[in-house]
């Protein structure tokens, strides 16, 4: 992601556990394709 990108223009996904949308985060830059959950809580409460 280049610097200076507005938050509204960041890519987003929907969490498969809670169904809420979440946006790209810098810590997910290398693995954005594999991110499925919005938080650790959702990843632990998979159903």
Molecular structure report:
The protein contains 1 helix and 2 strands; from the N terminus they run ββα. With 47 residues, it is α+β, with helices and mostly antiparallel strands. A two-stranded antiparallel sheet has the order 1-2. The radius of gyration is 11 Å and the shape is elongated. Helix content is 11%, strand content 13%. The model has no long low-confidence stretch (mean pLDDT 89). The longest helix is centred in the C-terminal third of the chain and has 5 residues, at 40-44. The protein has one domain.
Short description:
The chain has one helix at 40-44, and strands at 12-14, 21-23. It has 47 residues and is of the alpha+beta class.
List keywords for this structure.
single chain; about 45 residues; alpha+beta; two-stranded antiparallel sheet; elongated
The side-by-side strand order for the widest beta sheet comes to 1-2
Number of strands: 2
Shape: elongated
Biggest sheet statistics: 2 strands, antiparallel
* Structural class by sheet pairing and helices: alpha+beta
- Taken as a percent bin, the fraction of beta residues is 5-15%
- The radius of gyration computed from the alpha-carbon positions, rounded to a whole number of angstroms, is 11 Å
Structural domain count: 1
Order of helices and strands: EEH
Question: How far do the termini sit from each other?
Answer: 32 Å
Number of helices: 1
């Amino acid at each position: 992601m280049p610097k200076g990108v507005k938050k509204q223009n960041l890519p987003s996904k929907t969490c498969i556990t809670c169904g809420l949308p979440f946006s790209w985060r810098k810590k997910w830059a290398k693995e954005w394709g594999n991110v499925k959950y919005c938080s650790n809580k959702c990843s632990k409460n998979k159903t």
